[in-house]
Specification:
Mean pLDDT: 85
Structural class: mainly beta
Number of helices: 2
Distance between the termini: 58 Å
CATH topology: Lipocalin
Shape: elongated
């Protein structure tokens, strides 16, 4: 894990850069073939509390953006057997308080698919912060059956999905123009 912090995390809301943040998932097919796919990030934020700690991370992805390298699979996954993207256009991830761990950071969170939520444990690594810009990687295992995405038996399509997020975020710089400045005695006369 790389941790570079040049300053304390500025408090407030950081916004994920949706053009550079990626969500990748993979699942085992027939028990031994790894099938990767991607999802597009619609929005995301990171809340930093007054103690400069990560309070939560929220990510919303476009369910209809599911893309693997197989058009027929994409059509099936987007349909009612799996994501039902026409009726449930978003998938959301939310973490709670982020805590230091022996290898990076961890957080408990939830994932919501098709209106059903399930708890997940999130591992966070490769945290880098420089001023008002930052990045991190996060991984989690998602039990698709707990989310009602259970149309195919686990032998054909694995029950557990591996979720990976590579995120870039920024926060607006502090606006110093609204901070009152002291006036000298000569300016007051």
């Amino acid at each position: 894990m790389t941790t570079t912090t040049t300053t304390q995390l500025p408090t407030g809301t950081w916004q994920l850069d949706t053009s550079t943040t990626t969500v990748t998932l993979s699942v085992k097919k027939l028990g031994f073939i790894t099938v990767p796919a991607t999802l597009d990030v619609m929005s995301g934020s990171i809340e930093i509390d007054d103690d400069h700690q990560v309070k939560n991370v929220d990510i919303v992805v476009d369910a209809s953006s599911y893309a693997s390298k197989n058009a027929k699979r994409n059509e099936h996954v987007l349909g009612p057997d799996f994501l039902d993207a026409a009726n449930h256009p978003t998938i959301s991830f939310r973490t709670g308080q982020v805590k230091s761990a022996s290898a990076g950071y961890t957080s408990n969170g939830t994932v919501t698919v098709k209106g059903q939520s399930s708890p997940i444990d999130v591992s966070i690594s490769d945290v880098e912060v420089s001023g008002t810009n930052g990045s991190f990687a996060a991984t989690a295992t998602v039990d698709r059956n707990a989310l009602g995405v259970d149309k195919m038996p686990g032998l054909i399509v694995g029950r557990n999905l591996q979720l990976m997020v590579q995120a870039q975020a920024s926060t607006p710089p502090v606006d110093r123009s609204s901070v009152p400045t002291s006036t000298s005695d000569s300016a007051r006369h």
